[in-house]
Design a protein that fits this description.
Structural class: alpha/beta
Strand content: 15-25%
Order of helices and strands: HEEEEEHEEEEHE
Shape: globular
Largest sheet: 8 strands, mixed
Distance between the termini: 47 Å
Strand order of the largest sheet: 3-2-1-10-5-6-7-9
Helix content: 10-25%
Radius of gyration: 19 Å
Number of strands: 10
């Protein structure tokens, strides 16, 4: 009987342990978060997010025929292509260029949108503030905020799709797990996706 109880306990603990490991690749991603440019006290402040840089092109908002490989009402992130594709419930597709995680900081799998935030605050982690004591506890919305004007939280809230105060990073491997978008793009996507939206992150 005791052996049976131990076996049952082991079986019950196995899925819990596996679930806890799902998000390990980006645990603590905020330690650096790829934001070499995000220091609001830097002598070289980032360009204001509300003022496009010279030569800034209009965001890619490409409408395409629905793909049978992408379910409706789904966000697909193609990491290698630095592209996010959202297929609406009606089958319309929107494709956007994005910045993705640096090598070794990328996560792949299926998750979902858990929440959204308009003009999010950025809160540097304790480890970030230890490395840079000049960082405040909270960076309020504005030009110095590395999350831009919108944040879409995924999984357990550690992974985000968000804007950026460094549009030059779009199309590169720049972050430690998050997905950055141009301001106009993330604002459009923010209005379309809702909590519960399925998100597939592919290589």
């Amino acid at each position: 009987m005791r052996l049976m109880a131990l076996l049952v306990a082991a079986l019950l603990l196995t899925p819990i342990h596996a679930q806890a490991q799902v998000y390990a690749p980006y645990d603590g991603y905020d330690e650096y978060d790829g934001y070499g440019y995000d220091d609001p006290y830097s002598p070289y402040p980032p360009p204001p997010y509300y003022e496009p840089e010279p030569g800034y092109r209009e965001p890619l908002q490409e409408r395409r025929e629905p793909s049978t490989r992408i379910g409706r009402g789904t966000v697909v992130i193609a990491t290698r292509e630095h592209t996010l594709i959202y297929t609406t419930a009606q089958g319309e597709q929107f494709a956007y260029p994005i910045a993705v995680g640096r090598e070794g900081k990328q996560w792949y799998g299926t998750t979902r949108v858990v929440s959204k935030r308009l003009h999010p605050e950025w809160r540097p982690t304790a480890s970030m503030r230890q490395k840079n004591p000049r960082l405040p506890a909270v960076v309020k919305p504005g030009p110095a905020n590395p999350l831009g004007t919108r944040a879409i939280y995924l999984a357990d809230g550690l992974l985000r799709i968000h804007g950026t105060n460094d549009p030059s990073s779009i199309g590169t491997n720049a972050s430690s797990g998050c997905f950055r978008m141009y301001r106009e793009d993330v604002e459009e996507l923010y209005e379309m996706v809702q909590p519960g939206t399925r998100v597939i992150v592919q290589r």
